[in-house]
């Protein structure tokens, strides 16, 4: 049986979407360390209409990050179907990796969002705060299940209070987090 077409947000207000988002839960990814905490993404609109992406996580007390670019997959569509491109490895950017970033849901205040992609292999629950009330979380999990995601794979992201504000902590300048995550560590 074929999976149904996912519902994607239409008319996403990109300037309003910009800023910092905290990962509340996600499917495990080989691109993130298993012991990552305080995972977040910061988006900034570029003058050419693309989006600067900064993904950060702290692992073993060090800040790991990768920067990339997001852009509309179809300039003629008002659906929130974006492509995101990173170059890997981050310490020697040679290979472009492009993925889908579909906004499946965003609340009216642009405070929480559900992000997925067409294969349903990746899923993120994001929030402007580093915590989310259980009712909102459960509603987003149910929405993901309704879209055909195996929500049993969701893992909550650990956050400290207060969260790191800037680029606190020593940087993982050698990209060890990326190598460890590729090896499943």
Automatic annotation (TrEMBL):
InterPro entries: Calycin, Lipocalin_ApoD, Lipocalin_bac, Lipocalin_Blc-like_dom, Lipocalin_CS, Lipocln_cytosolic_FA-bd_dom. Residues 153-172 are annotated as: Disordered. This is Lipocalin/cytosolic fatty-acid binding domain-containing protein. Residues 12-158 form the Lipocalin/cytosolic fatty-acid binding domain. It comes from the Eukaryota. Belongs to the calycin superfamily. Lipocalin family. GO terms for cellular component: cytoplasm. GO terms for biological process: lipid metabolic process; response to reactive oxygen species. It comes from Stephania yunnanensis. It holds the Pfam family Lipocalin_2. PROSITE patterns: LIPOCALIN.
């Amino acid at each position: 049986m074929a999976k149904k077409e996912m519902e994607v947000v239409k008319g996403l207000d990109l300037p309003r979407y910009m800023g910092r988002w905290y990962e509340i839960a996600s499917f495990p990814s080989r691109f993130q360390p298993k012991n990552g905490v305080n995972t977040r993404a910061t988006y900034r609109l570029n003058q050419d209409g693309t989006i600067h992406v900064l993904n950060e996580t702290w692992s073993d007390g060090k800040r790991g990050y990768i920067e990339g670019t997001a852009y509309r997959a179809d300039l003629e569509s008002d659906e929130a179907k974006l492509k995101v491109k990173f170059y890997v490895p981050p310490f020697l950017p040679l290979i472009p990796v492009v993925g889908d970033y579909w906004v499946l849901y965003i609340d009216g205040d642009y405070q929480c969002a559900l992000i997925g992609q067409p294969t349903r292999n990746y899923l993120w629950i994001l929030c402007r705060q580093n915590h989310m009330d259980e009712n909102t979380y459960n509603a987003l999990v149910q929405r993901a299940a309704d879209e055909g995601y195996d929500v049993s794979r969701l893992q909550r992201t650990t956050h400290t209070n207060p969260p790191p504000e800037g680029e606190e902590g020593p940087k993982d300048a050698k990209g060890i987090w990326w190598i460890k995550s590729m090896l499943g560590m």
